[in-house]
């Protein structure tokens, strides 16, 4: 019988392969243990942090008995047992982090898409030593009004802002401010250190356990469905400026922009190279944010082509419309992709999709494939949902032409994949 009372026990474990989500896999008495803060091959003592009695449990490495040659002193001062949730691998060299991510990407592609391929994880310009790349930060406020980050898999807030990920200046002075208990804080900053800091009203936990903002009636329903929460601008009169090529966007803390300061540029180059849209063609940019890829596609199709860009956030569309006013071939729609597809201009030659972490899913991919584009470029920041989407393209008759991966979230387990699919 499975012993479900391992919680709090400390075990000596030899760590095996990295798994998806920032763990190494170990085995003990017939069970799988997912261990954080170790590295493949290490012998560690690890304390069980979660045990629900199933075939696996979770643990944190608390002592390294035999260290990997890839181990370095952790960049994150609070990464480690019971520490913050964001830095999974700040104790590994950058090349080891990338090797771990490459192995996770290959494993997910094999398991979920039946593909046997290895994909290198490329550096993005501006990464430095692994810290100082993040231009957008999400923070939480505890019940005493102190700002910090969530403890791993917990709603507790660690009020230590020495996170190595943000670009310099992003966190300055935030712990001197007065915050509303339970609120969320979003920060955006640009290369000139123009900063925008917004406090979002506290989310309320309903009887069903769902978080919804502290509002009544229609406002609450809209917010519970993902609508806006009341915002207080704490810092910043102007929105940070983001540049790709010679174009610029002004995107505030609650708008969307790729988190790594070099990411929008890196992905735009891949999209330009892979899309190969003809002059006058119709193309779609789905989940378009403020239209950074739409701008690249517009250059390719020219003034008499059409770029249909679909994005559910009205604020992101407004940022895009302001930045792309000189490109009338771009039609930006504030709509959900699922609803927009039947109304988009027919016969797209190329479709670009950059969905949120959960991926595009069966319904959207089937609808895109139904329109028969010659080429599909798909971007995903979660290797498992990316691999599931790859499998859906294959079952719709597309084959994988190329896949690239980028180390867009150094120190964390996240990795961005881009695939080119052709019929
Ligand atoms: C990963 S971001 C990509 C943004 C953009 N491609 C970029 O690089 O700046 C995903 C975007 O999809 C939007 N989104 C999420 N669900 C959506 C849906 N169902 N329909 C349309 N847009 C959606 C989000 O608001 C977000 O801007």
TrEMBL record:
Q: Where, in this chain's numbering, is S-adenosyl-L-methionine bound? A: 258, 287, 311, 354
What is any one GO biological process for this UniProt entry?
A: rRNA base methylation
Pfam families reported for this sequence: TRAM, tRNA_U5-meth_tr
Composition bias type Low complexity, residue spans: 215-228
**Its domain of life?**
Bacteria
Segments for region (Disordered) = 204-235
Keyword S-adenosyl-L-methionine on this protein? yes
Name of the protein in its database record: Class I SAM-dependent RNA methyltransferase
Species of provenance? Antrihabitans cavernicola
High-level lineage: Bacteria, Bacillati, Actinomycetota, Actinomycetes, Mycobacteriales
């Amino acid at each position: 019988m499975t012993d479900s009372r391992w919680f709090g026990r400390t075990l000596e474990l030899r760590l095996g392969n990295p798994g998806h989500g920032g763990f190494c896999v170990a085995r003990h008495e017939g069970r799988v243990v997912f261990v954080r803060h170790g590295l493949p091959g290490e012998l560690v003592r690890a304390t069980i942090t979660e045990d629900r009695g199933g075939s696996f449990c979770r643990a944190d490495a608390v002592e390294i008995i035999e260290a990997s040659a890839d181990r370095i002193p952790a960049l994150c001062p609070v990464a480690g047992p019971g520490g913050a949730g964001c830095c999974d691998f700040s104790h590994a060299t950058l090349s080891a982090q990338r090797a771990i991510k490459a192995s996770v990407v290959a494993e997910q592609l094999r398991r979920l898409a039946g593909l046997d391929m290895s994909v290198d994880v490329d550096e993005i310009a501006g990464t430095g030593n692994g810290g100082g790349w993040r231009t957008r930060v999400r923070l939480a406020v505890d019940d005493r009004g102190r700002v910090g980050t969530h403890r791993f898999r917990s709603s507790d807030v660690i009020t230590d802002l020495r996170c190595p990920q943000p670009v310099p200046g992003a966190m300055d002075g935030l712990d001197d401010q007065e915050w509303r208990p339970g609120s969320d804080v979003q920060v955006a900053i640009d290369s000139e250190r123009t900063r925008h800091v917004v406090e979002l009203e506290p989310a309320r936990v309903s009887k069903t356990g769902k978080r919804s903002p502290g509002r009544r009636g229609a406002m609450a329903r809209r917010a519970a469905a993902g609508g806006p929460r009341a915002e207080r601008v704490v810092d910043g009169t102007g929105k940070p400026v983001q540049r790709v090529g010679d174009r610029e966007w002004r995107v505030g803390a609650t708008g969307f922009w790729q988190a790594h300061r070099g990411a929008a540029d890196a992905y735009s180059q891949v999209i330009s190279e892979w899309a190969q849209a003809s002059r006058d063609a119709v193309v779609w940019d789905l989940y378009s944010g403020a239209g950074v890829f739409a701008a690249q596609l517009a250059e390719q199709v020219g003034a008499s082509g059409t770029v249909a860009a679909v994005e559910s956030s009205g604020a992101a569309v407004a940022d895009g419309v302001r930045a792309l006013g000189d490109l009338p071939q771009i039609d930006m729609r504030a709509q959900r992709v699922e609803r927009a597809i039947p109304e988009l201009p027919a016969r797209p030659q190329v479709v670009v999709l950059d969905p949120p972490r959960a991926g595009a899913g069966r319904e959207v991919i089937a609808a895109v494939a139904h329109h028969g584009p010659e080429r599909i470029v798909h971007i995903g920041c979660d290797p498992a949902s990316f691999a599931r989407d790859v499998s859906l393209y294959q079952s719709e008759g597309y084959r994988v032409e190329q896949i690239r991966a980028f180390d867009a979230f150094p120190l964390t387990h996240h990795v961005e994949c881009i695939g080119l699919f052709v019929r």
